[in-house]
Amino acid sequence: MACGRRSGDTKRQVILFILCFCVCQSGAETLRYSLPEEMERDSFVANIAKDLGVPLSQLAARKARVVSEGNEQLFRLNQNTGILTARESLDREEICPQSDTCT
């Protein structure tokens, strides 16, 4: 009897894991863009809504946002238009001083 219970618990855990994995994958997407060095302030980077294939109304409804690793936000997303712009002039040497490439 204990063996049957353990098998059911394992199946339940596997199903839960698969369900969580599918939900997580469907809810978030990562976009990557290559930008020129010393990009000017308020320069156009991308149209996020178009690249994601999401209607503009969904950006605000889903609370779309740009997430940075550090404290400084380098980009601005307009939820009404889907346009991503550079908040300030971007200088690679300033952002990533010790690296040839900057991510």
UniProtKB/TrEMBL annotation:
GO terms for cellular component: membrane. Its main location: membrane. InterPro entries: Cadherin-like_sf, Cadherin_N, Protocadherin/Cadherin-CA. It is found in: Membrane. GO terms for molecular function: calcium ion binding. Residues 1-28 form the signal peptide. The keyword Glycoprotein applies. Keywords: Glycoprotein, Membrane, Signal. Residues 31-103 form the Cadherin N-terminal domain. PANTHER family: CADHERIN DOMAIN-CONTAINING PROTEIN (PTHR24028:SF329), CADHERIN-87A (PTHR24028). This is PCDB1 protein. It comes from Copsychus sechellarum.
